[in-house]
Amino acid sequence: MFITFEGIEGSGKTTQIQSAAAYLSGRNLPVVVTREPGGTAIGLKIRALLLDPEHHDLDPRAELLLYMADRAHHLSTVVRPAVADRKIVLCDRYFDATLAYQGYARGLDIDFLKTLHSLVLDDFTPDLTLLLDLPPQIGLRRAWRQISAGEREAAETRFEKELVPFHERVRAGYLDMALQSPKRFRIVNAEQDPDIVGRDIRGILSHFFDTRYPPD
Question: Where does ATP bind (predicted)?
Fold first, then answer.
């Protein structure tokens, strides 16, 4: 089982993915938590390149290929083996992020991105995607507050330094994808208090898993 968490900066993915992992573990389900980029040792090096604010002039095509390289290695060494071992993989970002950021926001051709995903990654698709949605202004305020408090890496702020219209395009892209794939996406109101967001996510997961792993 492969479940992804998506959303703009400051949407609370890191907090909520840990909360979801604890909930599923409490149901005696085997869980693996990972992220993109940076879910492997090699991925950490790619992540440092991608998120370094000094690399503000990185060409969108180069950015795309770095993300795809990270994803190809991550899938082959972490995600696919865990899924084959019947574990539940919770991943902080996946290919939908590429469509949102490099496609909708950067302007790379969406059909080309989907073709690349199909060719390189065999169109490997999540079973469920949780989209933590909130306005960019709120998300960015949260993100910068966390950075100032030392709760997030100041060396990984390349996207936080993008202008608000960029993040508005990212959000619009995510919502468009959710509209196109309603069976896979669940939209969660991330403006709420984190405890309420966590409760909503647990409700979604409970409904999703009860048909697959009925409670004793």
Answer: 7-14
pLDDT tops 90 at residue 215: no
d(CA 149, CA 144): 8
Domains of the chain: 2-210 (3.40.50.300)
- Binding site annotation covers 13? yes
Q: What angle do CA 126, 129, 132 make, to 5 degrees?
A: 155
> Per the annotation, does 153 bind a ligand?
no
- Is 38 annotated as ligand-binding? no
Sign of the C-alpha dihedral, residues 45, 48, 50, 55?
Answer: negative
Angle at which helix 41-51 crosses helix 60-74, to 10 degrees, equals: 160
The 10s digit of each residue's pLDDT in 67-84 is 999 999 999 999 999 999
pLDDT tens, residue by residue, 152-164: 888 999 999 999 9
Question: What gap in Å lies between CA 50 and CA 37, rounded to an integer?
Answer: 8
Classify the C-alpha dihedral 141-66-1-170 as positive or negative. Answer: positive
- Residue 8 counted as an annotated binding residue: yes
